[in-house]
Design brief:
5-stranded mixed sheet, binds coenzyme A, Aminopeptidase, about 20% strand
Length: about 170
């Protein structure tokens, strides 16, 4: 897949609805964004557990992303700069509970640290509120690779409820 690395100096992002023609760029930039996250998870779990759980993580993550992008139960937005997608967020409604969920978010590493993730989180949170949800929720990891994500959610006004998941190879 061709590298797509936006110049941070040109960054002036706008947010629009996802279009199916965005799929390849979004999957590519997201795999680059998730690289350090999966590296941190692999370091915490060790190679045996990580391989048993995630195998070839890129293949699994790309498949999950494509499923989310094609899922009409999800609302998906794209952040764009210079006419190119640089990030995305997907959210969905759980009408029974009144809890809306931000399900996936990623920003191209070359565009990170400039408020794009926060703007995407804000757009999705606003939609959850307008859709009648009483609470917005995002699940994320407690590992160092997810530290930027945790920072974005905290500064977007979300309250963390830490949870710990234990694994054992069998
Ligand atoms: C999470 C993510 C979408 C944030 O995108 P972004 O455009 O960089 O977000 P923002 O620029 O709005 O904010 C990033 C914040 O994280 C902070 N940050 C960056 N690295 C950090 C680290 N190692 N530890 C703590 N905070 C960190 C930045 O300083 C910034 O906070 P600040 O504005 O208070 O300085 C992006 O890092 C990403 O794609 N990560 C990989 C995918 C992922 O983890 N998705 C979430 C899964 S739940």
């Amino acid at each position: 897949m061709a590298a797509h690395r936006p110049d941070p100096g040109l960054m002036k992002a706008s947010i629009r609805d996802y279009e199916p023609s965005d799929e390849e760029i979004i999957v590519g930039l997201s795999l680059r964004a998730w690289e350090p996250v999966f590296a941190a998870v692999a370091q915490m779990l060790g190679p045996e557990l990580f391989t048993r759980l995630r195998g070839d993580w890129r293949t699994g993550q790309a498949a999950e992303m494509r499923a989310v992008l094609a899922d009409h139960a999800q609302r998906v937005w794209v952040a764009e700069a210079g006419g190119e997608p640089i990030g995305f967020v997907a959210a969905r409604l759980h009408r029974d509970s009144g809890v809306g969920e931000i399900y996936m978010i990623a920003v191209d590493p070359g565009a990170q640290g400039q408020g794009v993730g926060t703007a995407l989180t804000g757009a999705a949170t606003g939609w959850l509120r307008q859709s009648g949800m009483r609470v917005a929720m995002i699940e994320t990891g407690g590992d160092p690779g997810h530290a930027p994500a945790r920072r974005v959610y905290e500064k977007s006004g979300y309250t963390a409820l830490p949870a710990v998941r234990f694994f054992k190879a069998l």
